[in-house]
């Protein structure tokens, strides 16, 4: 087992096992996932276009919804095209750099989607519990700052996780038992102890989930409490 990058012959490509090895199913799965991806992309892009072209929808709630649609579209686009390519290609490999980029973008958009749900819950709390101050709290500048903060935190988290994962040496096995470069199957290929990295990933994921769930629950608890008082 390698203990340092210097002692390893670094892996330059990974092989994705994909969803199935049965050739007869690949054509069917290609059509199915192409349809799902097309519907997802069309729905989200249609939502974004409608929100930005209809003046009546130029409100904070719909602004955040358009950003969430963009995030969802981007998340789907990170891995679906490669999955569709692998259904048709004989080789299901992905370069080391492409794997790094794919994992980083998946982490980024996954984190952003969670944090945006928390932001949207806060928006509803402000609109319902503080209607007179709503446009002060949720001005256009405030909305842009919240989205910028969300993506800044997401980029930082993605860079942290991806940086730690790919600082590990990958010097032998290169077969990923998945259809994209997800964190657990990639970590299994590392030629070093992954306990520290796994702890960092667990803490990071737990903090993001805990923060998101807490904001959502507290926001809707206040909203429900406000409704009961009325």
Automatic annotation (TrEMBL):
Residues 43-230 form the G-protein coupled receptors family 1 profile domain. Its main location: membrane. It is a multi-pass membrane protein. It comes from the Eukaryota. The chain crosses the membrane at residues 29-50, 93-122, 143-166, 199-223. Keywords: Cell membrane, G-protein coupled receptor, Membrane, Receptor, Transducer, Transmembrane, Transmembrane helix. This is Olfactory receptor 1009-like. GO terms for cellular component: plasma membrane. One of its GO terms (molecular function) is G protein-coupled receptor activity. InterPro entries: GPCR_Rhodpsn_7TM, Olfact_rcpt. It holds the Pfam family 7tm_4. It is found in: Cell membrane. Coiled coil: none annotated. It comes from Pteropus vampyrus. SUPFAM superfamilies: Family A G protein-coupled receptor-like (SSF81321). Gene3D superfamilies: Rhodopsin 7-helix transmembrane proteins.
